[in-house]
Amino acid sequence: MVVKRLIIVDVDLCVGCQCCMFACNRRFGEAGISKSAIKVTSAGGVERGFVVIICRACLDPPCARVCPTGALTARDGGGVVLRMDKCIGCKNCVSACSVNAISWDEENGKPIICTYCGYCVDFCPYGVLKLESISGGGS
Amino acid sequence: MVEKDPVSRVLYIDLSRKRFWVRERPDLFEKYLGGSGVAIRLLLEECPSGISPFNPKNPIIFAVGRFNAFFPLASKTVAMFKSPHTGNLGESHCGGRTSTAIRLAGYGAIVITGASEIPVYLSIHGDKVSFHDASALWGMGSSYTVGRVIRELEPSAGYRTIIRIGRAGEKLVTYASVIAETYRHFGRLGLGAVFGSKKLKAVVISGKSSIKPENIKLYREVYSEIFKKLTKSPLMRKYHELGTPMNVNPLNLLKGLPTKNLETAFFDKAENISGETFAEKFLGRRLACSHCPVSCIHLAALREPYESEPYFYKTKMISYDYELIYSLGSMLGVYDPSGLLKLIDEVEVLGLDAISTGVVLAWVTEAQNKGLIGEKETIGLKFSWGDVETYIKAVRFIVDQPNDFFKALAHGAEYAAKIYGGLDFALTFGGNEMPGYHTGPSAYVGYLTGSRHSHLDSAGYSLDEKTASAGKRLTPVEVAEKLFEEESWRQVLSSLVICFFGRGVYTPDIVVKAFQVYGLRFDSEKLKSIGVEILKAKYNFKVREGFNLEKLRIPKRIFETPTPHGIISEEFLRDTIRIFKEKIEA
Q1: Could you tell me where the DSSP H helices lie in B294-380?
Q2: Most CB atoms closer than 10 Å: which of A13, A93, A110, B515?
Q3: Which residues, other chains included, contact B12 with Cβ-Cβ below 8 Å and sequence gap of 6+?
Q4: Strand order in the sheet with B89-94
């Protein structure tokens, strides 16, 4: 089965405009960056460039492994799917993600999980991001 | 109206009593939009008339608007205060992450009054406001280090802004800047000195709110329309590729690039310090303000050897822009790009306004050449055009102020010239050092009538450039009308708060449409009239503080050096100013 995931083409192309974050936030129809699944921070001061944090769409996702309610489950081919109604907001997934890709929605008490929709890609003016197809087994 | 939109919340902070409170001010934000429109109302409320800019009562006002965090290029924050440099209206705009952080921290404006007894820095994380001892940061040699320390101390990387002053602000240099995120500034009119007078070293602001528009579908549509227009506009490519320094060569070819204290408006070595040269030889990284796809910020990588050790180098990242290349480059006859970068860096390290600093140094050079000042005043420094090392030493003296002469320089070119002579070539307008456009009469009328005495008030230079290339001459009535109209509309943009680079896309029609996203109905005429009202409110503040359009000093030098429109006549400028005055007082 072919599924999609987000990749970073070249982090040095990033200018730190955060337009991807604003785009991700708009998926919820809201302005801001707090509900963004993608994160851009400086690499210790803007002069050193930026860190772009995205969900790697792991084949065997540690975040899903530690979910006590089955709200977060592994997606076929890599990545995870969140069922909001099952999530009790324990934050286990946040601590389990070794690349720090799960943010927290303070307002709703739920994790913010990338849906690999690629909406952010359309708003990255410099080609930092790309949506790519992955087939099961590869990563 | 947008439910729960925190834009009309104003955070008040009293540094004397170390207290803070929030007031809802929908009265201001509904009528005057935000940004400049709200800031001038707050300034009129908070700043008692006639006070010294260093009086603790002088408020520091930061204001954003509805469009910040909503739309691209709405990426600026307005600061208002009484300027220690001109003794009148202080207004300065800054990008970086300032506007996103303030808006998403849940505020439309922040008003800081009082003065602390000990150095402090403020942190504002959403509703949490805290005062921190900044004694260890006070007197720190480099503004870069201050940012570095606070970055480690404070949370919310990626969602925050860190604004701070350098030593120039602490030492009350009246044109000290406030630096945001490194490389962006509330540069002009001395906000840094007002920070210093309050013993306020820095302010960290972070915000993580998310705001629902009234009409989500329309929001996505209008957003995409604006984003597309911006990213496809030729402006975007221009400002991204070379940045603002792309203006160096064209302005020089037009013979409008102020050079050597405007002894000429053509720099034969401009190519050495052009946008093209910097991009080819030094460009190390491009940066953007939060929510701006343009990314006009250009950093040069300067590799410098250590003298003490062979094969040992440091690489510094130094931000360069057109105005800096003009003021610290052509204006001082500096043509060595590495030397110019070192001078720019020193100004950044100390936290000075680069334009004022360059124009002050240009005046010093000419004053010494003419024998008005000697080496006693300059403590042995011998100024000559292009001598970067001497300029770097002088910049340090302006901050350290080891004698009366440098104390005077710390107040700007006009102040020093009143004492030592040379007013005719002290290039200030309304007390503020001139920007880098000797393009013709409209530019100068703009510097004189503009509420901030900045080229960005009414963009007279742009009017000059357009008319020069069309071989056209405007009458005083036409110039006054066009500048008034431009400055009025810019009040709307700076109330929302949109970067002026986006002005071509944010037309009245687009702004009207974007307002519908919030469920707010304005027509473009209404918006324009709000712009006029804001401009008049700023003017009224200035008149209250003693400003008089008829008594403006115009340095003779500008009538001696030809512009692309030929020699400017004083009569033309005075006539145009008189007509402008009638319009703004109508």
Answers
A1: 322-328, 337-350, 354-369, 375-378
A2: A93
A3: B20, B21, B22, B23, B110, B111, B113
A4: B19-24, B9-14, B109-113, B60-63, B77-82, B89-94
Q: Which of B531, B574, B334 lies closest to B522, judged by CA?
A: B531
Over B85-128, what HEC string results? CCCCEEEEEECCCHHHHHHHCCCCEEEEECCCCCCEEEEEECCE
B233-242, B449-458, B554-563: segment of lowest average pLDDT: B233-242
Query: A47 and B219 in contact by Cβ < 8 A?
Result: no
Which architecture characterizes domain B432-585 according to CATH? Orthogonal Bundle (1.10)
Instruction: Answer whether A31 sits within 8 Å of B69, measured CB to CB.
Output: yes
- Yes or no: is domain B6-206 CATH 3.60.9.10? yes
Q: Check if the beta carbon of residue B541 is closer than 8 Å to that of residue B89.
A: yes
Per-residue pLDDT, averaged over B377-403, amounts to 98
Q: Does domain A2-135 have CATH number 3.30.70.20?
A: yes
User: Given this structure, which CATH class describes domain B244-414?
Assistant: mainly alpha
Could you tell me if B491 and B41 are in contact, meaning their C-beta atoms sit under 8 angstroms apart? no
Name the A residues in 94-113 with CB < 8 Å from any B CB. Answer: 106-107
pLDDT at B3: 65
- ipTM score of complex: 0.95
For residue A41, give the 3-state DSSP assignment.
strand
d(CA B302, CA A129): 29
Q: How far is CA B507 from CA A61, B69, B230, in A?
A: 48, 19, 12
Cα–Cα distance for residue pair B354/B326, rounded to 1 Å: 10
Task: Name the pLDDT band for B60 (thresholds 50, 70, 90).
Answer: very high
The angle at the Cα of B474, spanning B91 to B327, to the nearest 5 degrees, equals 40
**Of B104, B212, B287, which is closest to A34 when you measure between CB atoms?**
B104
Is residue A11 within 8 angstroms of chain B, CB to CB?
Answer: no
Place of tokens 């037009």: B254
